[in-house]
Each structure stands twice: as C-alpha cells, then as structure tokens.
Design brief:
The complex is a heterodimer. By secondary structure, chain A is mainly α. Chain A has one domain. Helices cover 73% and strands 2% of the residues of chain A. In chain A, a hairpin with a 3-residue loop joins strand 1 and strand 2. The longest helix of chain A has 32 residues. Chain B is of the alpha/beta class. A 6-stranded mixed beta sheet of chain B has the order 6-7-8-3-9-10, sandwiched between helices. In chain B, helix 3 packs parallel to helix 5. The two termini of chain B are 24 Å apart. Classes of the chains: A mainly alpha, B alpha/beta. At the A-B interface, helix 1 and helix 4 of A face helix 2 and helix 3 of B.
Chain lengths: 259, 250
C-alpha cells in the first residue's frame, strides 16, 4: 500500500469542532463564570450610577452600560479561548498532533479564530440575555451589532493566537492579558462615554482600537455613538487585517512552533 | 528499490550544538528500519525534520518521493509519527482523540478503521474513557493509534516501548510487524536493542549527529560474529552498538 486509501478533505472543520468542544466541556468556567462577572459589574455600577448619570442626553446609565459589558465579555473571552488553548497545548505537548497534520496555515488560523468567535458570541449572548431583564433592549441597527461583534471577537481571537504562540509560560500570557488586553478593554468606553473625559484622555482614547469596537457595537443598539460607525468600521476592519496578517506570518515562519 | 524515506545531506544545529551533521540515508519501501544511537545522537531531530516539526539548516528529505519542506502537507499524509513523549489532550476521550486526529487529515467516517486499530491495540474497552484516566501504557497505545488513523504508508516510532510493560510490547510488535507485512514502511528508534535486532532488516547508528554505521542487521552482526564473547555467548546487537559507539568503525 503506497498511499493511504482516503479521499482527503480539509482538516479545518475538525479543528474548529475540537476547539469549540474544548470550551464547551468546561462551560461552567468558560461561559457561566464570565457571564456572572458581567452581571456583577452591571448590578454594582448600575446601582451606584443609575439616575445620577444620563448618557447621550437621553439614555439611562444601565441601558448604556449593557452593550459595553456584552462587548467587553465577548472580547475578553475570545482572547482567552485561543490563548489558553494554545499555551496549554504547547506546554502539555499535544499541539504536536495538530502540527503533524496536513493543515494549511489559513485552516489553522481560521479554526482557532472562529472557535474564539463562537465562545465570545456565546458569552456575549449570555450576558445580554441576563442583563436584558434589567432594561428593555433596543436594536437600532442590528447589522452593526453583528459586524462589530464578529470583528471584535475575531481580532481578540487573533491576538490570543499571537499571545498563545509567543508565550512560553502561563505568567507571560497573564502579563499579556493583564497589562494589555484588560486595560485596553476597560479604558475603551465600556463604563463611560469618552465625551465625559478631559480632552487629553479623549485624544488618547482615539488611539485605542478597542474604543472603536465598543463604540460601533453600541451604535447598533442606540443609533448614537461617539464617532461615526463607518469610521469605527474602517479602523476595526484595518486592525483585523493587521492582526490576521501578523498571525498568519507567525504560522508561516513557524515562530516558536516549528524550530 | 524505491525509497520510502530519502535523506540527503541534512544538517541542523541548535546554537552551538550540532544536532545533525550531513546525514544522508535511504529507507526502502516496505522495510523495517532501525535508527539507533545514544541519547542526544540526533534521532528525534531527524524524525522531527521528517515530520515537518523542525527545519533543517541544509539538505533535503522526502517521504515516498514527496519533499517534506516544500510540500509538507502532502508529505505529512504519507507519514505517521508516534512521538517519544507521552502527550495527550486531557479534555477528550480515546475515541474523540482518534476521531479528531482522523479529521485533522480531512478523513471523515473513519470509525470502522478506528475501531479496528483500537481492537488491535486492546483499546476498545477504554474507547469512552477520558485520556487523563488512562495508565501510561494505555496512553502509549493511543499515541500509536493516532499515528495510524490516516493509514500512512510510512510509520515512525520514536521509542514506542519506553516504560511499557512486557505484554504491551509483545502485542505492539505483533501489530507493527503485521503492518510491515502488509506493506507499511516502519522506522523504529529504541534503546531496547534486542527489539531492533529481532525486528529491523537494516539499521543506522547515529553518534553526535553523524551516521556512524548503516547496514543490514545481519551484516552488522556478522562483522563481529567471528569472535565470541569471553563467556562463549554469540555477539549480539548490543555488543555491536557498544563497539561502534566506543569509536570503532563498523
């Protein structure tokens, strides 16, 4: 027998299914816990600030906060999915099974990132469904909600892939998460409109790509945002292209994967 | 004779360590080939290059005529590798692990072959057990099964019987010998030289990244077979190995 008697297809669907099943098997940790965290944020900040702050001149603070919390949870969990999967597989050594297979770099990238999008969407939806009990939701432009949710999760999934490949130890990954991802999401307008900030911080916020993800996402709910959704789309889309290119470049060169 | 594996002038270094130094060898199609050497000789590096896990500094390698660098994806379909380390994914069962491995190669509806592999490796009773719950020997069997799910014509086993009990070693060699009999090319690295002597038709010995011996098992033994050991026993592969590694050319 010279050649294996199979009609080969793509390995992409299996790798995607495996990555989704991986977080599903520990859903209490990967889905329920971040939903609870977001609900706690809503209850605490909503309780303290509701009735004291009005956003965009007409929105209650709780209504304003919900899309931000949904997007923050979506982004952080998309990042966590790729980064934790890759670092665990690298440290335990089982990544070799994926590297031995005839997967293209694009298949590898797409499977990991789409699984991150799925987890981000599941967590984001969970947060939204529970927080919807607090305020009647509105959907001004649902297409923008979907576009920014997908792009945001794909960007953070890609950043998780980069971090997971780069990090050799869990504490390096934690540093990436705690000193880059967490501040960038927390300071992106989840809890406030940047128009309430001093001018210098408004300027700095405009250099944070996470701000455009959340601002564009929020526009989909209320039809109001700090900047035009088209500007946000252009910046977020450009950022997605940049992190995708960087991810695929790492895979092509075999950086820290193929010595 | 067709080469299942062709390695030409492969060199590889890690920093100042020369892991492989101008290694060239061919493994014939259908052969049971032994790759022997002390720890650090370069065996695993050579296997990693064949598997596309490692890039050579120079030289080339092909599997069934397919270059492992320029056409990695095609070459990987021709090769099944049993890694030396006991690695596994703790999230999944044995059956899930094998289905996923099959799917990575783009093979769907492969359950009949997966069931056959599990039966041959005595894994059927553990099919729905989580990988974490398996003993070391059972995990080793799963590694062998993972290497076989895509029915590769060339199978590389990197110390597959390290830390494995006698019963598994016997059943594993029976199964691997049957695969070899069916036409699969087998490359084996092992520190159990009696296994290599019994199974391998040809043997290459590596020392400090260089091939220091390459011949049929029979020829290697016959070169030293004229002399018996002082206790009267016949010379075996271990004696040949020690002789060659101590610096005497074969």
């Amino acid at each position: 027998m010279k050649h294996a008697p199979f009609d080969y297809g793509s390995g992409f669907p299996t790798l995607l299914r495996k990555e989704v099943k991986r977080f599903y098997k520990v859903a209490f940790q990967t889905v329920a816990a971040p939903v609870l965290t977001a609900v706690l944020y809503l209850m605490i900040f909503g309780h303290v600030l509701e009735g004291k702050v009005e956003m965009y001149g007409h929105l209650s603070y709780t209504a304003f906060l919900i899309p931000g919390l949904v997007m923050m949870s979506l982004l952080q969990n998309a990042f966590a999915n790729t980064s934790s999967s890759l670092i665990q597989s690298k440290i335990t050594g089982n990544l070799v099974f994926v590297l031995l297979a005839p997967l293209s770099n694009l298949e590898f990238y797409a499977a990991y990132v789409l699984a991150a999008v799925v987890r981000g969407a599941v967590v984001g939806l969970g947060v939204f469904l529970i927080t919807a009990w607090f305020v009647q939701p509105s959907f001004a432009y649902p297409i923008w909600i979907i576009v920014f949710a997908f792009l945001g999760a794909a960007i953070l999934g890609s950043m998780g892939l980069i971090a997971g490949i780069w990090a050799d130890k869990f504490d390096q990954l934690a540093a990436f998460q705690n000193f880059l991802i967490m501040p960038a999401t927390m300071l992106s307008g989840v809890f406030y409109s940047i128009h309430t900030l001093p001018p210098v911080w408004q300027t700095i916020s405009h250099f944070n790509p996470f701000f455009y993800m959340i601002d564009g996402f929020r526009y989909g709910f209320f039809g109001v945002s700090d900047v035009s959704p088209w500007i946000s789309f252009a910046i977020v889309g450009g950022f997605f292209v940049a992190v995708s290119f960087a991810s695929l470049r790492m895979l092509k060169t075999g950086y820290k994967l193929r010595h | 004779m067709t080469s299942a594996i062709a390695i030409k002038g492969i060199s590889k270094h890690y920093g100042v360590l020369q892991a492989l130094d101008d290694v060239s060898l061919n493994v014939h199609e259908g052969e049971f080939f032994g790759l022997l050497g002390p720890n650090g000789a370069g065996k695993t590096t050579l296997i990693s290059i064949l598997a596309g896990l490692c890039k050579p500094d120079q030289g080339s390698a092909s599997i069934m005529g397919v270059d492992v660098q320029s056409t990695h994806r095609e070459a990987s379909r021709m090769l099944g590798v049993v890694p030396q380390e006991l690695v596994f994914d703790p999230f999944f069962t044995v059956r899930e692990t094998l289905r996923f491995q099959s799917g990575y190669f783009g093979i769907r509806n492969n359950d009949a072959w997966i069931d056959e592999i599990m039966a041959n490796l005595d894994l059927t009773g553990k099919a729905d057990s989580n990988m974490r719950s398996l003993s070391g020997g059972m995990k080793r069997r799963v590694l062998v099964a993972q290497a076989l799910v895509h029915r590769p014509p060339v199978i590389v086993l990197d110390e597959p019987t390290a830390g494995v009990d006698v019963e598994l070693r016997q059943s594993l060699w029976q199964f691997i010998s049957r695969l070899n009999h069916d036409g699969h090319t087998i490359v084996l690295t092992t520190h159990y030289l009696e296994e290599a002597e019994a199974l391998c038709q040809r043997i290459a010995m590596l020392k400090q990244g260089k091939v220091v011996a390459l011949d049929t098992t029979a020829n290697l033994l016959s070169r030293f077979g004229g002399t018996k050991k002082h206790n009267g026993e016949a010379v075996d592969l271990e004696d040949v190995f020690v002789h060659i590694m101590s610096g005497n050319a074969a």
